[in-house]
Amino acid sequence: MRRLGLLCGIAVLVACEKPKEQPAADTTAAAEPAPAPAAPAPISLADVAGKWTMRTMPEDADTTLLTFELDAKADTSGWIFNFPKRKPVPVHVTTSGDSIITEAGPYESVLRKGVQVKTNSVMWLKDGKLVGNTVAHYASGADTVRRLRTEGTRKP
Fold this sequence. Notes:
The chain is built from two helices and eight strands, in the order H-H-E-E-E-E-E-E-E-E. Helices cover 12% and strands 47% of the residues. The model has no long low-confidence stretch (mean pLDDT 86). It has an eight-stranded antiparallel beta barrel. By secondary structure, it is mainly β. The protein has helices spanning 2-16, 28-31, and strands spanning 50-58, 66-72, 79-82, 89-96, 99-108, 116-126, 129-140, 142-154.
């Protein structure tokens, strides 16, 4: 009986013993979101000022449909598309982040004779080239749209 009393007493002591405290786990790494990727540096139009030989291609091919000269300025005024044997086409320019956004027209399309076109482009400076996408809106009865790619190299 003594043995039983002793065992019960030990069981009570063990049950009442405080558990050893574990150091708190560092949860800050898991709770904090991963840092967002760095935003691209904003474009400076001074970096693209000058004359560029531009080529326009279908969205899904490398065939050159037309070439023209882009006369880019260090600010948003005075940009011009110069198509061969055509009057210069003024271009409205804005920027957003690393993108140059252009709007031109309406003017007579080089690809569709006698049809007026208005173009909207977004371009980026990549590896020393101007690259981007263009959407051409043709006014030929019903508005038709064509998606194109553009790529330009700076003239010496």
